Amino acid sequence: MDSMILTLLIFLPVFGAAIMLPASKIWGKDNPNIFKWIALVITGLQLVLAIMLYMGFDPTLSVSASPYTIQLEWIKHFNIQYFVGVDGLSMPMVLLTALLSFLSIGISWNITKQPLGYFALFLLLDAGMMGVFLSMDFFLFYVFWEVMLLPMYFLIGMWGGPQRHYAAIKFFLFTLFGSVLMLLGMLALYFYSDPHTFNLITLIQTASTIDATLWGMDMRYLIWFALFIGFAIKVPVFPFHTWLPLAHVEAPTAISVILAGVLLKMGTYGLLRISYPLLPGEVINFAYILALLGVINILWGALNAIAQIDMKKMIAYSSVSHMGYVLLGMAAVVSTNDGGAQAGLNGAVMQMFNHGTITAMLFMLVGVLYEKAHHRYIFYPDDYKDAALAGKPAFGGIGVQMPVFTAFVAFAFFAGLGLPALSGFISEALCFIGGFSVFRTLTIIGTLGILLNAIYFLRAYQHVFLGPLNEKYKDYTDMSTMDLAIVIPLAVIVLFLGVYPAPLIDMIAPTLDALIQKIQSAF
Amino acid sequence: MSNFSSIFHYIPELILVVMILSVIVVDLVPSLKELKFPIAFVGLGLVALALFLSHGSKASIFMDLIVVDPFSHFFKWIFITATFSILLISRYSVEVEEENYVEYISLILMVLLGLFLMASSVNLLMIYLSIELVSIPSYILAGMKKNDRASNEASLKYVIFGSFASGLMLFGLSWLYGISGSTNIAEIHAALLTNGNPFLVYISLLLIIVGFGYKISMAPFHYWTPDVYEGSPTPVTAFFSIGPKAAGFAILIRVIYTLFTTESGLNATTSLYGVNWTLIFAVLAAITMTIGNFLALHQENIKRLLAFSSISHVGFMLIGFSVIGKEALTAVLFYLVIYFFMTLSAFYIAILVKNELHTDVIDGWKGLANRNPFIAAFMVISLVSLAGLPPTAGFVGKFYLLAVLFREKTFYWLAVVAILNSVVSLYYYFKIVKSMYFLNDGDEVDSEPLEVNPYIKWTAVLFSAQTLLFYFYWTPLIEFINSSLLFWNS
Asked: Which residues constitute the domain of residue B329?
């Protein structure tokens, strides 16, 4: 059973998508109930499997020693393996993916347009995400990485908002551009390492011995660069972030949750899984730029978020800002000060997990409001179709009408701006502590981000939820049981990890310690 | 080998000849008219059987004019499968009129005979003749829709470009004859080794590249492709984009590897006199794929779009010529097989849509996903494969070609050009996806289910399913290709 669990995690959703086809023949393809129940059961099972995996997971074991690892030959000619495994880096991501996929089915409960396509594609997307986090063979990793693009394209393009077609192709082209560069990096790693292999565990030993130059540049540096662009577009790192606000805004709520909650993490996960252990020397050379990009992300994302009048777009930019913390924390791996590297890297991975849960909550809550009001404006835009309303606050006093909802929004906003005792605070603080131990000035500038975060969250909160009730919204009902069932688990996790982060740290620390050692030995 | 004993190695071609004649003869007898297609299919089955039985044989026949070897066998399988599929769909296509069936079938089979010869010629005269045997019936096939101006134009353009390219190629071949006094390529190679020089090799090489490049629609000799593809009946277009192209690659590989390498043969590793033809092909590959892709971006007609896309795929396959070695050829042949499946399935579906909706314009496909989700889904698979994304074999093909460059650690710029091109290609392939699946809020489209011919539908599905199959497990195909990389004399 142990060795089957990872394969099941990946392929259970594929199975789910496959049985939807016969199901559509029996119950009709326009009846959403059957498909959403299949999706719910499948993702539920996946969540159970992920929790079982977590129960039996021993963070001190490396991938090669873990009982869950499977290594099978796939394509002999290129020595490609079906090699899946789990370690402290992938474990939190697997939990996050399983949890958010399950909850996203709940968020999608009201989808009625072409339900077969929606839920089948969603499950394929789920399979791709799991595959990325569990692959230990670069080729396999790449395959899953790309497999996700297609369902995502359709999910945004068919079920999204007014600009969905443009958003979908832009998302696709941007990420594809990144992934083809990654493909080049992957081929270079394969052919320059001896023996030729895609096995990420073997490559840790062999990749750093690559010694060649191309166009007057060190080969390892070029590989690092190609991989970095590939991952950076996914994170997204400034200046590659322009696809993100568009895709987030246009995507349906559940897909925004997945995009922000899981897909963005793949970028940083890829860096930590592949670039970091394989090319430690380049990490050291590049750390300052990484920190700089992180700080730019923090500030640029936050400043953009302040300028937004659409709540979803604001949250999208807040994601850019929050991923900046991850980058800053990751850059701190070069810190030689006592504990700086540990703080930074642990903070980064925790932030990946915490941002996943917090941002899922934010998008979900905005989605609740959108379903009722059919718009998400904090202020109406200046060119709004009703000239009398242009530039005026769009909501106001929702707190009176929907007190429970408002309480959860307040909770999520405070988690987003990093209030102590909520999970975001701990990971952001750790990122800053790590960053401060090496990049003093940069980190000090970066901390401005905390302030800016507070500005946009509080401003949005004030204009939407406080003040006198806008009469237009006076017959709104509060959150439904379904909404509560989705948001409460997330809130509990955020609160729990904010008060007691030890389970998360215990899960990731041993793996990250080994990673830090690997990088610092390259000095 | 003497002419008489050669016949035993020539059975597939002989069956073909008999078929061509009997198709024409049965059309003269009113009561047998209906037998044309059955004869063609049964005949192709017999040819396939004969091919299968002669698997692995090696011989040089008819006084060394043509050869039988695993290399030509490989291509013959591609040709025969292509012809079979094309005849199958032609029967259901509205573009091929019933009164023209006899010309149509016999011309297609004549082209097939020419393709068989192209893949096996080792003599300059035979090379030229076989190319013409492919070209001349092709000119007529392009003009098959007699009352259609576009079809007439296609035919005429094809003739003019074709004759021009043949002329240049003949001139190149005459240089080779001049230096060696022989028309057999193995003897020419020997002569070149003793009294050739780089200048001579360059001249003849470049002129020959023109001739072959035209056949495979390599830039800058691709100008005929979009017009011919657009004007010809769609089944013929599908045939052109596979059969003659594959044959062009077969003859290109045979001639280049026999003549312009020091060792002569598929095991060659160095070019003759250090003539840098790998660089020539690298540049041509980059130009071809870039031109194909960028011109495809603004096409509104599906056949023109597929024409430019086929040019860009040729560019990709030419990457395999920028390195000398077996691994490179494996990659080319692998890509060719994948290209075969994905192009054929895309064309099949294009023909299905044309039959029902009577349109070639991409916008005309709007809402297809609602009307027939099944074929729309398989079109997506084919397009994803054409764009070279996992989980389809198109990705594996590109992966192999890029790996060729990385293995030899050469022409990295070409790898960069290639991957950037594959990003660009996504945009236009997904224009079709967008048209099929995405509707604007106000769009009014027909939502009536679209019934299509079940045989054709399932054949199309079979082809696009191949692109998935070869993605998940392609080891057998690679092994088959490796065993096919043998000339008759090695």
From this structure: 292-490
Any domain includes B69: no
Given CB atoms, is B399 within the 8 Å cutoff of chain A? yes
A contacts of B403 (beta carbons < 8 Å) = 78, 187, 190-191
Q: Residue A150: which of B384, B406, B416 has the nearest Cβ?
A: B384
pTM: 0.90
The distance of Cα B389 from the centroid of its chain, to the nearest Å, equals 21
User: End-to-end distance of chain B based on CA atoms, in angstroms?
Assistant: 17
In angstroms, the CA A104 to CA A315 distance is 17
Q: In this predicted structure, what is the pLDDT of residue A228? A: 92
Cβ-Cβ contacts under 8 Å, A169 against chain B: 427, 430, 434
Lowest mean pLDDT, pick from A59-63, A169-173, A438-442, B242-246: A59-63
CA B327 to chain centre: 20
Chain B residues within 8 A of A142 when measuring between CB atoms: 390
Task: For B54-83, write each residue's pLDDT tens digit.
Answer: 888 888 888 888 899 999 999 999 999 999
Q: State in Å, rounded, how far the first CA of chain A is from the last one.
A: 42
- A96 located within any domain: no
Mean pLDDT over A97-116 rounds to: 87
Dist CA A39 CA A50 (whole Å)? 16
Chain A residues with beta carbon closer than 8 angstroms to that of B384? 150
User: B45 near B101, Cβ under 8 Å?
Assistant: no
Checking if the pLDDT of A424 tops 80, the result is yes
pLDDT, residue A1, reads 65
> Does the residue A107 lie in any domain?
no
Stretch B363-391: mean pLDDT, rounded?
Answer: 86
Q: Does residue A340 lie in a domain region? A: yes
Question: Which residues span the domain enclosing A356?
Answer: 282-523
* B476: in domain: yes
Contact B403 A212 (CB under 8 A): no
B447 at the A interface (CB within 8 A)?
no
Asked if A214 and B412 come within 8 Å (Cβ–Cβ), the reply is yes
pLDDT of residue A5: 86
Has residue A353 been placed in a domain?
yes
- Return the residue of B nearest to A170 by Cα: B427
Counted domains in chain A:
1
In a domain, B132, yes or no: no
Contacts with A, B 458-477, CB within 8 Å? 473-475
pLDDT exceeds cutoff 90 at B112: yes
> CB–CB of A173 and B409 under 8 A?
no
d(CA B343, CA B302): 12
B41 touches A: beta carbon within 8 Å: no
Give the list of residues 6+ apart from residue A254 with CB closer than 8 angstroms, or none: A104, A105, A107, A108, A122, A367
pLDDT digits (tens, 9 = 90+) for B458-483: 888 888 888 888 888 888 888 889 88
Q: What angle do CA B393, B472, A6 make, to 5 degrees?
A: 135
| Res A6: pLDDT | 87
Q: Is B116 contained in some domain?
A: no
Give the gap in angstroms from C-alpha A84 to the nearest C-alpha of chain B: 16
d(CA A18, CA A130): 17
pLDDT in tens, A184-223: 888 888 888 878 888 888 888 877 777 777 787 788 888 8
Element (H, E) at B84: helix B70-90
Distance from CA of B214 to the nearest CA of A (A): 30
Q: How many CB atoms lie within 10 A of CB A18?
A: 14
Q: Is the pLDDT of residue B257 over 80?
A: yes
Q: A169 and B419 in contact by Cβ < 8 A? A: no
- The distance of A81 to chain B (nearest Cα, Å) reads 12
Domain count, chain B: 1
In B, which residues are within 8 Å of A176 by CB distance?
Answer: 389, 422-423, 426
For testing contact with chain A, the best of B297, B419, B480 (most A CBs within 10 A): B419
**Does the interface predicted TM-score (ipTM) exceed 0.90?**
no
